[in-house]
Amino acid sequence: MHSDPEAIKRQVRTYMMVGAALFVFTVITVAVNQVHLAVPLAITVALIIATMKGSMVAAVFMHLSHEKMWIYGALVLTVLGFLILMTVPSFTTRDSIGTPTHVEAPAAAHAPAH
Amino acid sequence: MNIPYTVEERPDTGLANGKLGIWLFLASEVMLFGALFSTYIILRVGAPEWPHGELNVWLGMANTFILIGSSVTMVMAWASLKLNDWGKHRLYLILTFVLAGVFLVNKYFEYADHVRRGELPSHSTFLAIYYTLTGLHGIHIIGGMIVMAYFMGPGARMWKTNRDQFTNRIEYTGLYWHFVDLVWIFLFPVLYLL
Q: What ipTM, to 2 d.p.?
């Protein structure tokens, strides 16, 4: 982190520019939404813009662009945990626990009675 | 008893303890919101149809502007302390607090409108996850406001006794506040636009 007043003043200009960029990206997000794109495309575009905005907040406002290794280490673990959280639910649609794999046809039940 | 490494950096981590602490806390917060975003995805993917246009986009957009603005004022409150400008710090911190309050007032009107129309969490899966996500986010806003109020009130005395430690405390408050802003940056398109 800078402590030199000149460096802080330069950072202040960056904060203002990033703030303005975040406003512009928000307007773009809403404008794209008004175009009524197909749902998969709309989701992709909105999430790309949100990721760009989030990265700017994290890199500039939260000073992640020049942090120490321990912080990056904690964040790598966070990203791993987050990815696991996002992936685990998909397994609920793929598991076969409780589903019989070999079901014999109930032939006898349909056999004609004599 | 003095708490070590509140200002100076620990030799092993290269960080003041508070900074590593707030980042570990934010990591746990990512897990909390991550679990709920994951829930949202599984509910949405499994739903035969998903409502669109139920929320007021313009109010959501206004709240996005408000939170982005508050992030700028928060980082400026910290930068002002680094420049030894106490007056500007106070101004920016008060502005951040006010913007947070305006965000909550907007949210109140939004909730009130839904409740008036009978759109409660039990009304649909979408509204259930909407209230859960925005409610939890709102609680985080209130938490941030309480911390800011402390630093505008009794906590401000530390500036006279230990400037560096006070500046660090404002930086940690800012990190938390930017995280709250970051969560909203994703909540807005996910809930209001898609």
A: 0.91
